[in-house]
Amino acid sequence: xxxxxxxxxxxxxxxxxxxxxxxxxxxxxxxxxxxxxKVIKKMSQSISITGHTDAVKFGSGAAYTNxxxxxxxxxxxxxxxxKTGVESDRLAKVIGAAANDPLVVDDxxxxxxRRIAIVLLPGTGKKKEAKExxxxx
Length: 137
Prior knowledge:
Oligomer: single chain
CATH class: Alpha Beta
Structural class: alpha+beta
Strand order of the largest sheet: 1-4-2-3
């Protein structure tokens, strides 16, 4: 039996994880990610990180777009997870999704669309270690 653990870090008060146009996390997002990292560290699965943006476009002719920004957000998250002790060889995918797959579908420019998603990939890792980590919770 396989299961997917997907962690979508969204502030309960509806705050964005990132300022508009930036890959630098807000303090509350860094704190939440630190807690998530501590739990992920106990698991053994490989990890996929996807960065997302809102649909606000950069100025016309800008070389930097939401594609680069979303990839930079995913990489910022990757670095933060490594800082919490997650082993870098567990990071299987670091993806930028731009404004595709908005969290707030009816408002693609909403700040809550500026987020990351972390997925523990099914069928990876050591089953015994994963079971022990879940039992510790």
